[in-house]
Amino acid sequence: MDHGTNDNSEPTRTGSFSRASSPGCLLRRLSLSISSVVSSDDDIHSETFSEAGDVGDRALHSNRQSVNSSVCLSVDHAMESGAVIHPAELNTISLVSPLPEDVTSSLPVDPLKCTRDKKQEKQGLPLSLEYILCLIHLAVFGILGVLTRYLLERLFGPSVSGVTSDHTIVYPNLPSNMVGSFLMGWWGVVFKADISQVYDILAIGLTTGYLGSLTTFSGWNQKMLDLSVSGHWVQAVLGFLTGLFLVAYSIIFGIETAKGFRWILKRLNTNTKREVPSTYCNWRLNSCRHHLAEMVVLLLVLGILLSVSGALLKEEFGSGSSGAQLWLACLVAPLGVWIRWFLARINGCGLGKSGILRWLPFGTLIANVSAACITAGLSVLEKSVNTKNFNTVATGIELGFPGV
């Protein structure tokens, strides 16, 4: 291409790079971008698999350095230099390839909306208040996850439908694990980026808070250990295999159904000629006033949940009923969710400086192994002490605190 005889045939490409110091500098920047894309392309699937649930408080820092800041910066420079950028050519300007569309949604294509989002982001909460708001979300959704798991155990348990039992391979936590894994395919894999574009803290609350409390590895592990200690080795082995198979295929089924639902939404938006990313920009919560109002409402909800749980626990504690265990679980659930969230920041980092084994979510693995150890220790103490009050405390802690 002859740079000396450049006409108006490509105004949009030269406009966004008009502030480059020299063609050589521009070529070096482009080559670095291409090399970084090629080097990181092989790690995309492993990182996104490891970060399917959450990345802990790393998400709060990354959201402050979001993609809007980089894309809107080049758009603003191009608009200041007088270039006309068409939305269809935004993808041709950047050489950074996006993540797979099943995991990450496309960015807003309207420069004016990006500029408005950039101005609204300055009015957001400080990082400390954003941490507090995230912890409140995790606490509320964690309690709701514990309640949902308890209801599913009662619904499919011997007292209602009789599908699950403590003495069979269909253990009581299997329905909640399957439902949570199915929803993880929706909220944690396919629609995670869409939810984050609307409200990133909501995505954290749904995945780490609600789904983390709905599913339980430690409870399933403990039931199989109880079967093996009782001499039912065949049932214990079959229970492990059945649990792994059903949970894995629940995630796959959730991902595939979410893909189908996404395809239907795209078809509907294509027929109505609407742009989904622009809708995300309109729905996104960026106002500090909205965040503070939401914080007040969630604090009231959390206070009501904890107050009701404490009052009912005080009333039913001496009876040793399952209700007392549930209310104690609701009281200790927020602490367990917060610990899981902070451990989730290790997900996707790998080992060492080279970051090997990035596909393995080490934060979630540490939380699961620790929860299994805590549950096993409480089970041993429960059998050795064998009193009504201690059984209530131990079972409540097993249900709420390490419920992962």
TrEMBL record:
Compositional bias segments (type: Polar residues): 1-21
Q: Where is this region: Disordered?
A: 1-22
What would you give as a GO molecular function for this chain, any one?
Answer: fluoride transmembrane transporter activity
Alphabetically ordered keywords of this record: Cell membrane, Membrane, Transmembrane, Transmembrane helix
Record localization: Cell membrane
Q: Which reaction does it catalyse?
A: fluoride(in) = fluoride(out)
Q: Fetch the InterPro entries from UniProt.
A: FluC
Highest taxon of source: Eukaryota
Pfam families xref list: CRCB
Q: Which residues cross the membrane?
A: 129-152, 172-191, 198-220, 232-255, 292-313, 325-344, 356-381
Q: Which GO terms describe its cellular component?
A: plasma membrane
Q: How does it sit in the membrane?
A: Multi-pass membrane protein
This molecule's function is given as: Fluoride channel required for the rapid expulsion of cytoplasmic fluoride.
Q: In which family does this protein belong, per the annotation?
A: Belongs to the fluoride channel Fluc/FEX (TC 1.A.43) family.
The protein's name in its UniProt record: Fluoride export protein 2-like isoform X1
